[in-house]
Amino acid sequence: MAKQTERKEEIVICKHCGKPEYWGAMRWLSGRCACRNCYRSFWEDQNHKRYTWDDLDGPRPALEEYKEQEAKKCENTN
Ligand SMILES: [Zn+2]
Description:
This protein is an alpha+beta fold. 33% of the residues lie in helices and 15% in strands. The longest helix has 14 residues, at 63-76.
């Protein structure tokens, strides 16, 4: 039986860099939905300055976690 106690946030793959990111941490900028890394570079491109805030820091999900999540989804479709 899988433990249900720890409910992790949904993990999605960023369209721009192909890296996993928490859905709740995805950012919108100019109609683009991007992970924190991409958001930071888009923002810097648009504003021509460094993004100096630390709100984009924090842990990123691992690709392994994403795969695990997708595997569980398949199990649940029975
Ligand atoms: Zn990205």
